[in-house]
């Protein structure tokens, strides 16, 4: 009937009016969603978010067995050029004047080297040879051990000058140059350099220095760090508060000095960051943090990216606190600098560093029972090695499950040993205020 025709016509108009915009809306939404979630857009999970998610999932995978002579674990490094992960080694500098070697994957103890009567400061594997490990020693030498040999004697000894007491060192990225920093003796503070190439077949061979820098610091040189890819660039930090960047390919110290940055406090850690590693950062013994961009040196832009007088006051951690900073690591894929801090009870806080400040990524608990003093981050598989005052060496991996969760108690070590280990002293904070 005509009434049915009219009713059908009106129904069709209603469908067009009501549903056509919805169909357009759905089509537009689908197109917008595909656009926003395509690779490289903000709605896709960013590389930074993925990294932060992995770090927040770190769990204990392995725990080293406590040695008969427990000691603080002060510095950690991992061999870089081993043919496989299973054959890589971990070297740990300990407060009992020894270097301990462990298997990287199992944390099984391999062997130990002693520096007695000198105190070891820092440990580094050669970049291109996974069998050579170096350490600075308070007896005025840099010692090199070949871990393939059963002998306990250093295969090379890089000697300093009679008054030198080395408290920091590093070896450059092509293993050609060693640089070590000294304690201040009377008015003298040195950066000492050696040619690292030499014959390791004859144990105990001694090498003399190439030369020194003596004008750029006026107090103990606490940290040395070569550039990751530029073999001639090195940064040094001192208790005088200065962070100096050098190009040692220049003819003299004055020409070599590229930049001097002032942290206004004693330096406890330094490192390189940013794309092309054109940024440097430092931490101080009173838990301050400074971050500079060397790419801005020849511009009118300020080189300071971030300056925090006391990180303990700026990082907000729910139901917890940040007691100290240990160090940092730059993640190339995420283009982000991450820091590690902790508490005296062994908790580890992972922090993300941005121009707007520090933010918490995650907290690792249930591992250490005392202050964490050292770490080594494998950014390829996001694993983390940590060592502390409880004499434990821990391997953390995303999503790992540990078979045994037995924690060790805090060690009590004679105060004379602590002269060479870093003390996180809260009195700095009260004195500043």
UniProtKB/TrEMBL annotation:
InterPro entries: WD40/YVTN_repeat-like_dom_sf (IPR015943), WD40_repeat_dom_sf (IPR036322), WD40_rpt (IPR001680), WDR89 (IPR039328). Keywords: Membrane, Repeat, Transmembrane, Transmembrane helix, WD repeat. SMART domains: WD40. It holds the Pfam family WD40. It comes from the Eukaryota. WD repeats lie at residues 214-256, 365-396. Gene3D superfamilies: YVTN repeat-like/Quinoprotein amine dehydrogenase. The chain crosses the membrane at residues 6-26. The keyword Lyase does not apply. The keyword Membrane applies. PANTHER family: WD REPEAT-CONTAINING PROTEIN 89 (PTHR22889). This is WD repeat-containing protein 89. It comes from Asarcornis scutulata. The lineage of its organism: Eukaryota, Metazoa, Chordata, Craniata, Vertebrata.
């Amino acid at each position: 009937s005509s009434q049915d025709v009219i009713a059908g016509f009106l129904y069709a108009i209603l469908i067009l009016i009501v549903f056509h915009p919805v169909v357009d809306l759905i089509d537009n939404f689908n197109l917008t969603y595909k656009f926003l979630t395509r690779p490289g857009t903000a709605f896709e999970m960013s590389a930074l978010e993925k990294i932060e998610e992995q770090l927040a999932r770190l769990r204990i995978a392995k725990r080293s067995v406590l040695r008969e002579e427990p000691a603080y674990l002060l510095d950690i490094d991992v061999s870089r050029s081993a043919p496989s992960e299973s054959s890589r080694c971990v070297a740990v500098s300990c407060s009992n004047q020894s270097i301990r070697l462990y298997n990287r994957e199992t944390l099984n103890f391999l062997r130990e080297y002693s520096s007695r009567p000198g105190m070891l400061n820092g440990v580094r594997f050669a970049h291109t040879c996974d069998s050579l490990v170096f350490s600075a020693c308070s007896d005025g030498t840099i010692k090199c051990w070949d871990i393939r040999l059963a002998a306990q004697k250093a295969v090379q000894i890089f000697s300093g000058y009679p008054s030198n007491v080395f408290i920091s060192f590093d070896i450059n990225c092509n293993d050609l140059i060693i640089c070590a920093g000294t304690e201040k003796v009377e008015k003298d503070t040195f950066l000492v350099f050696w040619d690292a190439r030499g014959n390791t077949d004859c144990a105990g061979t001694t090498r003399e220095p190439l030369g020194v820098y003596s004008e750029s610091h006026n107090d103990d040189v606490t940290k040395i760090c070569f550039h990751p890819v530029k073999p001639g660039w090195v940064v040094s930090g001192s208790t005088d508060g200065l962070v100096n960047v050098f190009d040692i390919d220049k003819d003299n110290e004055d020409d070599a000095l590229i930049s001097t940055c002032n942290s206004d406090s004693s330096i406890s850690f330094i490192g390189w960051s940013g794309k092309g590693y054109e940024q440097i950062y430092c931490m101080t013994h009173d838990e301050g943090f400074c971050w500079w961009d060397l790419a801005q040196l020849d511009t009118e832009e300020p080189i300071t990216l971030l300056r925090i007088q006391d990180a303990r006051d700026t990082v907000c951690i729910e139901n917890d606190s940040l007691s100290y900073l240990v160090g940092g690591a730059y993640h190339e894929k995420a283009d982000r600098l991450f820091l590690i801090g902790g508490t005296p009870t062994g908790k580890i806080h992972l922090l993300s560093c941005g121009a707007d400040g520090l933010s918490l990524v995650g907290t690792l608990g249930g591992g250490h029972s005392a202050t964490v003093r050292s770490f080594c981050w494998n950014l390829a598989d996001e694993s983390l090695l940590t060592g502390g005052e409880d004499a434990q060496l821990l391997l953390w991996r995303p999503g790992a499950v540990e078979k045994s969760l037995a924690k060790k108690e805090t060690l009590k070590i004679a105060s004379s040993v602590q002269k060479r280990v870093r003390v996180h002293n809260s009195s700095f904070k009260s004195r500043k205020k």
